[in-house]
Amino acid sequence: MKTRRIVVPLAAGCLALAACSGGGDDDTAGTGPEAAGWHDEIEGGPLEVGVLSAEGTPGLGILRELADGLQADYEGTDVTLTFANTDARPGIEQRWRSGDPLDVDYGMFDGTNPALTVWADDGALLDLRPYLEQDDPDTGEPWLDRFSPAVLEFMENPSDGGIYGVPSELSLHVLFYNAGLFTELGIEPPRTWDDLLAANTALQAGGVDPIAVTGLFEPYMGMWSDHLWLRTVGYDKARAVLTGGEGHITEDPGFLEGLEMLQQLRDDDAFLTGFEGTDFTAAQAQFFQGDAGMILMGSWLVSEMADVIPADFELGVVAFPTVEGGAGDQGAVMAAPQVISIAAESEHIPLALEWARRLTSVETQTRRAEEIGEVSAVADVPSPPGIPGIDQVIADAESLEPRDYGITQSPAMEVIYPEIARLLFGEQDAQQTLERLDEGLRRVHGN
Amino acid sequence: MHRAAQRRIIIPFLLPALLLLGVFFLYPLVRTVDISFTEWTRTGSSSYVGVENYTRLFDDPGYVNALKNAFLFTLVGGCMLFPVAIAIAWALNQRIHGERFFRFVVFAPVVLSAAVVALMWKFVYHPTLGLINPALEGLGLGALARTWLGDASTALPAVAFTTVWHGIGIWVVLLSAGFERLPPDVLEAGRIDGAGEWRLFRSVMLPMMRDLFRILVVLWIVQSMQAFAFVFIMTNGGPYGSTDIVGTLMYRVAFERYEFGYAAAMGVALVVIMLVVTQIVNKVMKRDELQY
């Protein structure tokens, strides 16, 4: 009886709390200031901005200077830079769900990925189109015209035509190679699959593992199958099958062809010795230490590893090799713009817009390219000098396709990359991988 | 009259603890059960789906695999932990020279954060740049070298070993307290009867500490079945799910796939499974009170 007297009210209280907290608040306004005069409405105030640069990096230094400039120009402004990388996303997205979003944030929108248009569809993000269409006070041209047309599909929501994000940088997936080593061994940069196989042989003859890859982060192993399928199947078809649940992976021979090419790399011992137990940071460091000749990675590699790149290291980049006779997209490059969005609920929307405008200015983007090696999605910004060859990759790209087909944010993630890991680890061959992929994809897509 | 007055005094003392228990344990538990009957969107809208999340659970090969790995982790980690912890606690109870130093060495890892320890061991296990494989090769045992975290057969034991290495100090302290509480007259009687230290340990100390072992085993099961940090940082469930446990799977389902209701159902099912397992272990290891 005594116990009941305590437990019953306590449980009732808990249930009441639970009932009160359910559901979340859908009352998002989605309105900002008048587009025509938004710049005149900027007032100082607190502004919380998501950033991807870690503490102590030169990238964060540039953003701090940007924040200082905003604080100096608008009295009462107090900019807080909040680290918003992949690991921080769960906590930050929980803040969005609970009605306490960052004013400016990364990772909230990608027009090419249905999993990342939901915030815009639910009215949590500000439609930037009206503001982007206004003339920029610095250039006299519409703000929108700054951006490369190739990234517009990432900025625009297909469902309503609104623009819910602007790219602060562009990550391209490219094949990095040790240019000094290649010159020394007389190897041509691999532009085709046959070039890549020839480079592997030559590197092995020179006592160097051909390709650095991590075995402890499956999506990075999956970058190889992603790119091979881009060449042997094509982006639209591969995306439809892998994450769209349209059709089956056994129906297009390009999938098996890509897996067989991957198996060939494995059978040729093309990957870094002990890659299975090597973390991605270590794999990247080993590439720069000359333990491996090539690494397939995003263009963020150079800024991320700046501290460990030897001063005399000669870097080169090429697009992922083309596959002769492949039925897919031979000129496409996989890309991921880092898009910033503005919370519709922000109390300082004009200030947030000004942050986005300054961050995407040619001046800031040029600094970021030159000082930290970021590739820009803004026109007239030079390619980063620390990534020789990236300008050629951009110039030659017939299209920019969203990286990973949206796999990492879909239930297919639990199926695809583990099976690719099994293939690379020698647990199964290409045909068995295809069969297991087929079985798993049918299960998760229910088709 | 006296009792009623006592009760009135007790309640204010209990209230802070009850409040904390309610806010940090009961409320999250009730809320988790509540969420497990719903389906959520990424932006936070939810709808009631009844028991659908629970019916999905045991047809999900990912969850079954994670449960299997969680049990394996508990078993393998327990086998690594208890014999060594008992041996160390016994040794430290022998009043050996430099006992304080050894206590410090054994306890030191406990004060390191799990993230630091996990990253450190990740590099120790590195196949070519780490410490283990080069050491094995140096000793002429190169055939034993593995890719450790990259090998489906060694990854789970490797992570379990790291977890045990990090936390063994606490278990040694608990077991040491158990050894110290053994009645000295009983041990003395054993010695007078001619029992050696090993015989004394095996036939007197261990049986007398059986209740303590039972509690510690239950605690280990509860702790290890909920393991998360070491697996998340060292392997994130890989290679190909061989170290995936319920904690890491729940995290991915909730925060990468945004299926909060399904993740909550996984958590609730784990609580029920743990309650059942600990009850069984409790019953199996329980015995009549020892009279001495």
UniProtKB/TrEMBL annotation, chain A:
Keyword Signal (UniProt): yes
Keyword Ion transport: no
Membrane spanning stretches: none
Matches recorded under InterPro entries: Bact_solute-bd_prot1, SBP
Signal peptide as annotated in the record: 1-21
Keyword line: Signal
Pfam families: SBP_bac_1 (PF01547)
Domain of life: Bacteria
Name of the featured protein: ABC transporter substrate-binding protein
Native organism: Jiangella anatolica
From TrEMBL, chain B:
Signal sequence, start to end: none
Transmembrane segments: 9-30, 70-92, 104-124, 155-175, 212-234, 260-281
UniProt keyword annotations, A-Z: Cell membrane, Membrane, Transmembrane, Transmembrane helix, Transport
Top-level lineage group: Bacteria
GO terms, biological process: transmembrane transport
Membrane topology: Multi-pass membrane protein
ABC transmembrane type-1 domain span: 67-281
GO cellular component: plasma membrane
Subcellular location: Cell membrane
Primary location recorded for the protein, binned into one broad class: membrane
Keyword Membrane on entry: yes
Coiled coil: none
PANTHER family: BLL4140 PROTEIN (PTHR43227:SF11)
Similarity comment: family membership: Belongs to the binding-protein-dependent transport system permease family.
Name the record gives this protein: ABC transmembrane type-1 domain-containing protein
